[in-house]
Amino acid sequence: MRNYKYILTVFMTLLLAWVVVACEEQDMDRTFEGPYFVRFTDSSLTFKESYNQTISVRVHNAGPQLGEPITVRYAISGTAREGKDYAFEGTKGTVTIPANQSFGEIKLKLINNANNILESQTVVFTLTDVEPASLRVGFGKEGLLGKSITFTIEDDCLLSGNYTGVRQNGAYANLLGITPATATLRDIAITSTDCKTYTITNWNIGLPDLFGYNAIKPSFTFVDTGDNTLTIPTQSNSELGGDTLSGTGSWNPQNRQLSFNLRWKANLRTNAGKDTTLTITFPFTYTPQ
């Protein structure tokens, strides 16, 4: 009797193991047969309205690449106003994923209507249908995942943004006995949190080796006085090593160009070991990119 129970137990154990293995093999052999889907790559994006480069909102095919174009249509909602806050580049309402590719792009350009009112607007894109019909829009229950994206446009201050700067180096060229020339630099950033006092960074446009600032980019602040004139209060920071900056400037409301006369007061030591002060004024012009 004991042998019978032992044999029965072993048999049931082997049978159970066979069932588990058979189920696992069946699950492993099971292949995904679709449907595949398209979706937005991101669920949200945020840009300041002063951003002036083309922005791409990506839609991707989450399945195998197809040998034919994929046409995806979308609806638009939100609080932002087309033509006042943003504009489309290319066909509105439709994005194409090219044949043998995985991504298509909705291209936008932001319109900088900066008015010193710091609010935000949104553009909500929602995928509606796709061709070929073998694909679906969105993933998961009722296709909600990846079906929409909220694009937030943050208002910016009137003078904020990225600029291209130009400086005439005549002031120190004469000092050093070199030929005057013009220096240019892109991606000069101007930011503000209150639309009155602004911070400017990456403005160091080939400053003379005499002062040793060719490897650093000290920042400085200026104040919008409200009548198209600008003031650079006397200031210093650790990067300036005790030197001070001050000056005046202006803003042209027609072309949004900023002009500065930056006064640099440097503390130097002569060959005789005496301390001396040297003041040079640099003219800068910044044009929105």
Automatic annotation (TrEMBL):
Kindly give the Gene3D superfamilies that the UniProt entry links to this protein: 2.60.40.2030
Tell me which SUPFAM superfamilies the record gives: CalX-like
Q: Which residues form the signal peptide?
A: 1-22
Instruction: Could you list this entry's UniProt keywords, alphabetically sorted.
Output: Signal
- What is the scientific name of the source organism? Larkinella insperata
Q: Give the matching InterPro entries.
A: CalX-like_sf
Which named protein is this? Calx-beta domain-containing protein
